[in-house]
């Protein structure tokens, strides 16, 4: 039986030439990702991303440019990951759902092992 993919949004938050990446405790623990989460019923993608970053990192962001989307099939589910650039507006970054964070340059992205769904976004960011 085929189910619809889960719609997930991710934020590419930058500070100068550095990009924020996070490492999760739970699903695929130990792998790195761009922070974000599921879009809930009735939310727009930017609303969901702003909510998720507030919940997960205690920061308010302005969601900007749409970057790309990736459809990835895991053994038990499929996700459609849509990515946006984000600008920090307010708050001090505090980890609630992650075990680590790193601010990295585009070239340093290759030094981290990312979730399969995030790998196409890594490739896109490294090519810019």
TrEMBL record:
Belongs to the Nudix hydrolase family. One of its GO terms (molecular function) is 8-oxo-dGDP phosphatase activity. It catalyses: 8-oxo-GTP + H2O = 8-oxo-GMP + diphosphate + H(+); 8-oxo-dGTP + H2O = 8-oxo-dGMP + diphosphate + H(+). Residues 4-127 form the Nudix hydrolase domain. Its cofactor is Mg(2+). Its EC number is 3.6.1.55. Keywords: DNA damage, DNA repair, DNA replication, Hydrolase, Magnesium, Metal-binding, Mutator protein. It comes from the Bacteria. One of its GO terms (biological process) is DNA replication. This is 8-oxo-dGTP diphosphatase.
């Amino acid at each position: 039986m085929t189910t619809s993919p889960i719609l997930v949004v991710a934020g590419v938050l930058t500070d100068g030439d550095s990009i924020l990446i996070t490492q999760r405790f739970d699903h695929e623990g130990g792998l790195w990702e761009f922070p974000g989460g599921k879009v809930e019923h009735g939310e727009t993608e930017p609303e969901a991303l702003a909510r998720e970053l507030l919940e997960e990192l205690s920061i308010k962001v302005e969601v900007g440019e749409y970057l790309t989307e990736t459809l990835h099939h895991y053994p038990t589910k499929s996700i459609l990951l849509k990515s946006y650039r984000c600008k920090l507006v307010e708050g001090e970054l505090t980890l609630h759902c992650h075990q680590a964070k790193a601010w990295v340059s585009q070239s340093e992205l290759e030094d981290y092992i990312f979730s399969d769904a995030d790998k196409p976004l890594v490739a896109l960011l490294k090519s810019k």
